[in-house]
């Protein structure tokens, strides 16, 4: 295993532990909600589910970008652009949700639910934004036609791809726990 693959693997493992702890905190406070808003009274799982589809689709377009990149490199640029657009739509949905919650009085200091919700989903949103910046950088470099010539550049592309799939996988868990379990 190369040094860069090892570094990305260790980074993702540390981030997985970080998210696991945030999820555990959310689950604990979900079990003992206290006063104030709850997930069931505050969140719209249907609307967030629609925006989630865009994030999940972006994992597929990233996979298609990777396949194109490894084969002929010409189609990768378009798939990367689509990936950035889909991820951006998801982030727009998260910002829109936050604004709606704020307008209805649900803020991070309102209840234990709100604190853990904004912490968990906010850190995920930050990871999506970082991933989009990395994909955008790879997109620009791929668009020049000179990227991907060396093994190091191919490893960079692969690292960004793995990170993006990780971000999507984390959202599957968060969406299930925060939005779907809220109605159980």
Give a brief outline of the structure:
82% of the residues lie in helices and 0% in strands. The chain is an all-alpha fold and 184 residues long. The N and C termini lie far apart (43 Å).
CATH topology: Four Helix Bundle (Hemerythrin (Met), subunit A)
How would you state the average pLDDT, rounded?
91
The CATH architecture category equals Up-down Bundle
The Rg value, from CA coordinates, equals 18 Å
CATH class: Mainly Alpha
Biggest β-sheet, characterized?
none
Structural class: mainly alpha
CATH superfamily: Cytochrome c oxidase, subunit III, four-helix bundle
Question: How many beta-strand elements?
Answer: 0
* Uncertain spans: none
Helix content: over 70%
Strand content: under 5%
Distance between the termini: 43 Å
Shape: elongated
Keywords:
mainly alpha, Four Helix Bundle (Hemerythrin (Met), subunit A), 82% helix
Describe this structure in words.
This protein has a single domain, classed as Cytochrome c oxidase, subunit III, four-helix bundle (Four Helix Bundle (Hemerythrin (Met), subunit A), Up-down Bundle). Helix 5 (112-143) runs antiparallel to helix 6. It contains 6 helices and no strands. It has 184 residues and is mainly alpha-helical.
